[in-house]
Design a protein that fits this description.
There is one protein chain. The protein is an alpha/beta fold. Helices cover 35% and strands 31% of the residues. The protein is built from seven helices and 15 strands. The protein has helices at 11-27, 41-50, 69-78, 95-100, 113-131, 177-184, 227-240; strands at residues 2-7, 33-38, 57-61, 84-89, 105-108, 134-139, 142-147, 151-157, 160-165, 170-173, 190-193, 197-200, 204-207, 211-214, 219-221. The strands form four sheets. The protein has a five-stranded parallel β-sheet. Strands 10-9-8-12-11 form a five-stranded antiparallel β-sheet, covered by helices on one side. A three-stranded antiparallel β-sheet has the order 13-14-15, with no helix packed on it. The radius of gyration is 22 Å and the shape is elongated. The model has no long low-confidence stretch (mean pLDDT 87).
Length: 241
Amino acid sequence: MYLVALCDDETRELNKTEVMLKNYSRRNPAYDIETERFEQAEALLGKIEVNDYRPDLILMDIYMPDKMGIEAAKELRSMGHETRIAFLTTSREHALEAYQVDAVQYLVKPVEETALFSVLDKFLKGAEKEKKKYLLFRNEGKISRIAAEDIVCCEARRKYQCVYLVDGSELLLHTTMTAVREKMRDFPEFVSVGVSYIVNLRHLVSMNSDKIAMEGGRTIYLPRGSYKMLREQYFRYYCEE
C-alpha cells in the first residue's frame, strides 16, 4: 500500500487529482494507493509531526494562502523527512526552488493525466525497490513505516505483539502474531522461534541449545527441540547472503 497526500487549497483541484489517481489505480491494480486530502499546508505538516503520518508521496500546490508549498517542503525536510514531493502549480517561477528541496517533479497546471501518470510510474518503480526493505504496520489509525534492518525481534503479548527496534524503542501492535509473520514472510532474515517470537537473524549475537542473545541485551529462551532448526536457518541465511 502507498499513501499519497494531496495538498491544495482549491477543492476542485483536489477532486481532479483524486479522480486521476483513481484512474491510475484502475489501470494499475497491482498498486494499492490510499489518498488523504489537505486544504492547508499547516494541516499536512501538523499531522506528519504530531500523528506520525508518513505519506510515501505528496502532491502539493505551491500557491496556498496559509503557507507556500516550497516553505512547507523546507519545513518537512528540516524535520528529517525524505517523503517524495511533486509540486502542482500554475507557474514555473519556483521550479529551481522545487528541485532544491528534492522534489521529484514540477507539474504546471492544468495537469494532464498522462503527465501525472508518468510521475506515478517513475515514483512507484523506485518505491517498489525500496518497499522490499520496509514493513508497514497499521495500528490504531496510525501507519508506521519501519526498515526491516531496524527490527530486532517481535514478541507475542496476548492480544498484542511487541516489535523491538534497534534504537531501544518498542512498537505495540493490536494484531496477531500470524498477521505479523505474514508481513515478514518475504524477508528471509526473520524466523520464528516457537509461537511467541520472531527474530531478525541480522541482530542475533549468540546462541546455544537453551537460549539466544539479541542485540540490545534481550535474551530469548528456546523451546525444546528448536535449537537445531534455528542453527540451520541461521547458517543457511548467511551462506545465501
